Amino acid sequence: MTFTARALVIRALLTLMLLVASLFLLAYRINPTYPVDDAYISFRYAANWAAGYGPVFNPGEKVEGYSNFLWTALLALFAEAGVTPPLGARLLAIANLGLLFWFLLSASVRWSIASKSAALTIGTTGCLILSLSPHTVRNVLSGLEAPMAAALLLMGVLSLAHERHWSSPFLFLLLALTRPEGVLIALGASCVALVLATRGEIVGGMSRRERALREAGRWVMVFLIPYTIWFGWRWWYYDSALPNALQAKSGLPHEQALQQGIDYVVGFITPYWPLAILGIVGTVVSLARHELAGTLAAIFLVMLAGGNLVMGAADPYVHFSRYIYSALPLLVLLAISGAQKLCGWEAERHSSRRTTVLLLVVSLVLIQIWIVAAAAWLPWERSTRAAQRFPPQRFISGFDRIVSQDRSPHLDPAWRTMLPHHHLAAWLLEHADPSDQLATSEVGVAPYYTDLPVLDLFGLTDAHIASLAGPPGSDADADYVFGEAPRFITSTVDSSCLCGGTPGEARLRTDWRLRSKYDVVNVFPYGHLRMLLFERRSEPLFFVHYDFVALFHYERVLVVGDDDREQWAPTLAQEHAGAGNIASHWTEAERHCLLRLLDDGGQLADGRFPPFVADAIRAWLRNWQPLLYHHPLEGDQRLAIRYTDVSIPPGAFLEFGLITSPEHWSPEHGDGVRYEIIIREDTGPAAVAFSEYIDAKNDLDDRGWQRRAIDLAHWSGRTVDVEFVTTPGPAGDAANDFGGWGGPKIVIASDSSAEQRTPCGAAASAIH
C-alpha cells in the first residue's frame, strides 16, 4: 500500500471512529423533543411534495413557508423512497457531520508543518471538539439544515483555498440552495475566486485578464445560470421574490434587530473564546506567511458573523444558533491551524515534538471541557436536563429513536410538559375530521402529523398574515381569521398571569368572536405555559350588533356645562382614543380557581371539558378587552365620545368594562373617575343610561375590570346617539385618571343561551 493510500485509509478510519463516537453521544442526548417544531414545517412540505401536491404546506396553496429548498427537496426524495422526513433529516445530518470530520482531518494534514501523525492527532482533537459541542448535538438532532450548510461552506472554502476551480462554484451553488443567505456568501466567494485568478502576471501562458475571464465563465456556467433558473422557477411558482418565511420574520425596528443580532453572535461565540484565541493565532500566522487557506477561513468566518448581526434577530432557536452554526467548523479549522503553528514553533525551540503535541492535545481537551461546562448553564440545557432519565438502556433506546421513522406523535409521559404540540396532534387525530381547519401559531408538529388544513397565525405559511405591518407575530388580523371560520384555534398563555402568547394571539383573545363562537375543549401543559385549544360552537352564544371600538364612527366632543362648545374632528379622535389591549386583572382567587379548573379538565378521560369550564374560560376571555381610552378633564369640562345614528335592535344589551390603569392606583394625585353613558334621541331630553363612580385607588373592589351590561329595551327599534363621558371624582382632580371603556358593544343574546354559574361562584350569563 502506497503512502498516499495508507494516509487515506487512516483518515477514513479516524472519520468512522469519530462518527461512531458521535452516534453514542447523539443516542445519549436524543429525547422526544427532537426534531424541533420548526423542522416539521419542512417535513410537511417534503411529504406533500412526495405525495404529488408539489412543495406546498396546504395542498392548493402555493406559499413558500420554508427557507431551505435543497434540504426540503432531499427530504422529499427520502419520503419518495419510503423514509419519513424526520428519519431522513437525521440521516442527512449525520452524513454531513461525517463530511465535516473528513475535511477537517484532510485540511489538518495538508496544512501541517509538523509530522503527519502530529497533524492527525491535533486534527482528531479538533474534530472531537466539534462533535462534543452542544451546538453540534442540537443542530444534528434538530431536523434542520444547519449541519448540511456547515459542511457545504467548509468544503467550499477548502475548494477555494486549493483552487479547485470547477468544484468551488458548484459547492457554493448548493449552499445558496440550502440557505437564502448562501447567495450572498457565494457572491463573496466568486469575488475571492476572481482575485485569486489574477495573481501573477503570466501563469501557464495566460494573462491576468484571460485567467479572470476564464474563472468568471466557470462561475457563470456552474453557479449563476443554474441559480437564475431555479430562482426564476420559484418566483414563478410562489409568485414572490423572497421566501414568505423571511417576510413573516421581518419587521423589527432596525436598532432592536441589530442589538438582538449582536447578542446572538456574542452569545454564540462566548463559550468558544479559547478556540477563538487559537484561531487568531492561526489567522495571524497565515497572513504573515501568505497562506491562503487560513486567510479564507477567517474571511468567511467574519462574513458569517457580520451577516448574523442582522439575521440573528429572526432565529427562534437561539440556543441552537441555527443561522450561525456554519461558523463553528471554520472556527475549529482555524484553531487546528493555530495549534499546528504553535506546535511547529515549540518544535523549533525544543527537540521533543512528542511532548509539544501532547501538551497541545491536553490543552484542546481542556478547551472542550470548558465549552461543555459553559454551554451547560444555558437555560435550554437546564430545562431539558430536568426531564432527563438515566436507565441502563439509555443508549439502546437512543439508537432506536435515531433510526425511528417517527410516524406518530411523541407522547412520552416523562416529557409531557415539553411535548404540547405532540399531544395536540394526538388529540386532533382522534377528534378532528380531515377537512377541519386549524388556526395556530405553531405550524410544525401538529400540522405534520394530522394533515389538517392550517391557518398560520404567525404568518410563516400564510402570505396575508406575513404581509401585515409590524414586528413578527404582532397581528393575526382577527377579521381574516374569523372570516375563515377555522374549527380549531390554539392560544398560548403564561400560567403566572394567564396572559402572553404572540401579540397576534392576544388580539384574537380580545375579540368578542372568540368568546361567542368558540369553546375551550382542551389544555396542554407547556412548561410554565399552557396551550389552550378552542373549538367552534355549532351556534354562537351571542351576536354583536354594534362594536364601538372597532367601528370608530364617532365624534369627540368637548362639553363645558350643558352646551357643546367645541367639536373635534373624527380623525383626531382616532389618534387620541385608539383601541389598545389592557391586561387581564383577576383576583388571585379567580386566577387560581381557573388554573385548577384547567388542570382538572385536562385529566378527563375523554379529553373534553365540561360546560362549566368553558363558561369559566369565557368569563376569563371577557377580561381581555380592547380599550377605548378616555381620560377625564379638569373642572367642569367633560370629554364625550359620541357615536351618532346608532340603531337599537330588539333584545339588545350594551355591554362594556370599566378600568383604571393599575400603575396609577397608588399615586398621591387623582380621586377616581365617574363613568356615564348618555343616550340622546332627536326628540326628548337626553337620558343618563348609566352612571358609576370608580375609585380604584381607595376601594380594592374597584380594581381590575368592572364588567357591566345595561338593557336597551327602552330604545328598542330606534336610532339614537350614544355618548361615553368621563369626569373626575368629587374633588375634581383628574391627575392620573388613566382609564377607559373596555370593549363597549351592543349585543343580542342567541336563543340557545342560558344563565349558568361557574364553579368559582361568579354568575356568568351567556353574554358575559
Give a brief outline of the structure:
This protein is an alpha+beta fold and 768 residues long. It has 28 helices and 21 strands.
What would your notes on this structure say?
The chain is built from 28 helices and 21 strands. The longest helix has 31 residues. By secondary structure, the protein is of the alpha+beta class. The C terminus is likely disordered. The chain is elongated, with a radius of gyration of 32 Å. Helix 27 packs antiparallel against helix 28. It starts with a helix and ends with a strand. The strands form 5 sheets. Strands 8, 11, 12, 14, 17 and 19 form a 6-stranded antiparallel sheet that branches. It has a 6-stranded antiparallel sheet with strand order 10-9-13-18-15-16. Strands 4-3-5-7-6 form a 5-stranded mixed sheet, sandwiched between helices.
